[in-house]
Amino acid sequence: MSRRVVHAVLIACLVIFLVGSVADADERSVIVGLNASSNGATGLASSVEALASTLSAQDVDASGLELINAVRARLTREQIAQLRADANVRYVVPDGTVATPERLAGDAFADSRDADVQGEATPVEFYNWGTERIRASVVHRAELPRMSAFLGLALALGLGLAMTRLGRGRRRLAMLVGLGIAALPVLTGCTEVLVLPHNSALGSGVQIAVLDTGADLEHPDLADRILGGVDLVNDDSQPLDDNGHGSGVAGILAATENGEGLVGTAPRVGLWVVKMLRYDEQGSISDLVRGIEWAIDHGADIINMSLGTDEDNPALRDAVRAAHDRGILMTAAVGNTGDRVLYPAAYPEVIAVASTDREDRRAWFSNQGPEVELAAPGTELVTTGQEGDYQVQNGTSFSVPYVTGTAALVMSAGVRSPTDVRRRLRQSAEDLGLALSAQGHGLVDAERAVLQSD
Question: Does residue 324 have an active-site annotation?
Answer without folding.
Answer: no
